[in-house]
Amino acid sequence: MAKSHKIKQVIKSTEKTAVITKAMQVVSASKLPSALDRFKSTKPYADLAQHIMAHYSHASEHPFFQKRSDAKKTGLIILSSDRGLCGSLNLQLFKKALHHLQDQESSQQHVVLSVSGRKGLQFFSKHADILSSVESLSDKPKIQQLMPLITPMLDAYEEKELDRVYIAYNQFENTLTQTPTIRQILPLQEEPNVKKTTTYHHEQEANTILDMLLKNYIESTIYSCVTENIVSEQAARMIAMKNATDNANDIIADLNLTYNKIRQALITQEIAEISAGANQSTGETL
């Protein structure tokens, strides 16, 4: 009887867990479409900015285009989540970022980090120098919220304290697949497939316009990566919570089967004891 009571307690506890994981799955599923729309909405602006940037890249002397062959110090922006329960999403990204850190250090390059998300900050504070960080981003982040992450990297690059800047994030392939990706932000790389036939006329000095344009382009690129990482997070959490709910339901089914077998065995034993007692009473009477 004690064993069946313990099983019943585990069943109730697992049912409560299944209710929580199911609720989290539903929440992530409801957030995913709007997060995906937000990410897609960043594309037209980013594509236009990239087209304009490509027009200047072949002739510009702007430092954002200049490659520094003797790189000694690089920056890495890492996008992670504030909360867990999203499968191996953060772990896979952290592994890729760590490999990047090891590759840079093996090439005698010191790496400094700008980290978004509490999980990333907790992990990388033990592995590298943190230049800046941002926590508690909403599901609908504003570019102003990201400036503490972006500005220190751009300033350090312009002052030649950094020779390259990369960003690590989860690229959204589909609901089931999110790929950890490291992308170079600075120096800007020329896109070979973008045509440069357009001629632009400037009301202000071209370099002033270009400096503003390039910074806006970098900011929009990083913002696009942030929105894509949020999409990946919601998709990963939805799938992880669905798997957790399914596993909890499987455990409940197995425990109910075990519980019913124990109950059946106890009932059978009680019937046998009653029958034996009845037979014994009948024998004594005779």
UniProtKB/TrEMBL annotation:
InterPro entries: ATP_synth_F1_ATPase_gsu, ATP_synth_F1_gsu. Coiled coil: none annotated. SUPFAM superfamilies: ATP synthase (F1-ATPase), gamma subunit (SSF52943). It is found in: Cell membrane; Membrane. CDD domains: F1-ATPase_gamma. It comes from the Bacteria. Its main location: membrane. Keywords: ATP synthesis, Cell membrane, CF(1), Hydrogen ion transport, Ion transport, Membrane, Transport. It is a peripheral membrane protein. Produces ATP from ADP in the presence of a proton gradient across the membrane. The gamma chain is believed to be important in regulating ATPase activity and the flow of protons through the CF(0) complex. NCBIfam families: ATPsyn_F1gamma. F-type ATPases have 2 components, CF(1) - the catalytic core - and CF(0) - the membrane proton channel. CF(1) has five subunits: alpha(3), beta(3), gamma(1), delta(1), epsilon(1). CF(0) has three main subunits: a, b and c. PANTHER family: ATP SYNTHASE GAMMA CHAIN, ATP SYNTHASE SUBUNIT GAMMA, MITOCHONDRIAL. Belongs to the ATPase gamma chain family. HAMAP family: ATP_synth_gamma_bact. This is ATP synthase gamma chain. The gene is atpG.
